[in-house]
Amino acid sequence: SKREELLGLNHFALDVTNNIPRPNNDDCASADGTACALYQLQEWLDDLNALSIHKFGKSLRVALSPTKRIIGREVYEMAFLYDADGALVELLNHSGRLKQEMKM
Fold first, then answer.
1. Element (H, E) at 12
2. For 38, which DSSP code?
3. Alpha helix positions (H), 1-104
4. CA distances (Å), 28 to each of 15, 21, 51, 70, 93, in order?
5. CA–CA distance from 82 to each of 28, 31, 94 (Å)?
6. Which helix (H) or strand (E) holds 43?
């Protein structure tokens, strides 16, 4: 079973934002200021998994599927994978910026 409470600070993080295609125009921005890209972190992971199976015969080991997180005004997609040795790797995709900062 997945133990999300174990996903803490002791992991490696990679920003994959520049690897994920973006729309060519701003007409696609949603009302909350985030991008409405149809190709997001989950689709990128699906393609990466297909490539991994094709090239290496191994699928990605997902610890936590992509979720959205708001940090200040920035909106990120985050996912956690296990590397070949079982260490956690966090993948980040910056998906947009809110027009107004979230207050706690």
1. strand 12-15
2. S
3. 41-56
4. 23, 13, 29, 20, 17
5. 33, 35, 21
6. helix 41-56
Q: Which amino acid is at 93?
A: N
Q: What is the pLDDT of residues 10-40, one digit of tens each?
A: 788 899 999 988 766 555 555 444 455 578 9
pTM: 0.74
Quickly tell me which residue has 């997180």 as its tokens.
69
Structure token digits, residue 98: 């809110």
DSSP state, 79?
E
Q: Among 21, 32, 9, 5, which residue's Cα sits nearest to residue 100? A: 32
In the structure encoding, which two tokens stand for residue 79, read together? 């996912």
Mapped onto helix, strand or coil, the DSSP state of residue 68 is strand
- Rounded to whole angstroms, the Cα distance separating 57 from 104 reads 46
